[in-house]
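Hello,

Our lab assistant flagged a job as stuck in the queue for most of the afternoon. It eventually completed. Since we weren't sure the result was trustworthy after the delay, we are filing this so someone can double-check. Below is the sequence as submitted and the structure that was eventually returned. Let us know if re-running is recommended.
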Amino acid sequence: MKLGIHAYEWCSTWSNDTLDIIDTVRSLGLDFIEIPLMRLDLFDPKAVRERLDGFEATTSTVLLAEDVDITSFNEACRKNGVKYLKDCVKATAEAGAKSFSGVIYSQYLKPAKSMPTEQEWEFSASCLKEVARYAADLGVSIGVEPVTRYESYLLNTSEQAVRLCDMIDEPNVFIHLDSYHMNVEEKSFYEAIKTAGSRLKYFHMCENDRGIVGTGHVDWDGVFRAFREIGFDGYLGFEGFADCTDNMSTWVWRKLAPDGETFVRESIAFARKMMEKYK
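-- returned structure --
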């Protein structure tokens, strides 16, 4: 498997001013950097590709707003959402990356008052099918990441992610799990990963408080045992935080590590120890 880290460990907004983070991640001996597309207007694919210079990158963390919600009953919003996601895929390909994932299946923090209807599931699947076919032509795979009930009404569990992938039914669609969200929504880390099976191509290795990996109560033995049993050989990335940032969506209001360097160093060491244990 490939070991990497999210750029949010060093910044709250990606732009050309943060390109040096690529050099930092490369210097840590990691395999890839995960770059957020939260501000597509500030993402410069050409500059990213040049700075990568052969180093691998993935893109993620797209959070759909109301006007680009592909589960909306408003057809214009769904069309806007498909266009927006295609723009993200295009930027991903132009930067030289081959993987794009996140909360791409419905409005983030949607003020839903009831469970999603079958029609809303169909809206999401139909739109993502179109995006997936577009992405395939550009050599990009797209991943759906279940998050907590407080952030999405559509995908909270691995089982639901499998259902949506089945509905989309395109070979370049995969599942992206995150242990921080799994800690809230899943009964078992091990069983959730087994449920995803071969569809699991991306995993965010996060502690239950999003602090230093290995210092909380996530069942890492269950996680890595499941990895071994399903033959997981995809992207294993850290998405944690050492301190408060001005990116409100992290909801971090206290120091979770002495500093960013300590978070990165100790998390990498723990991950490599677990990879060796369950190789």
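-- support follow-up --
The delay was a queue issue, not a problem with the job. The result is valid. The chain has a mean pLDDT of 95. The longest helix spans residues 75-94.
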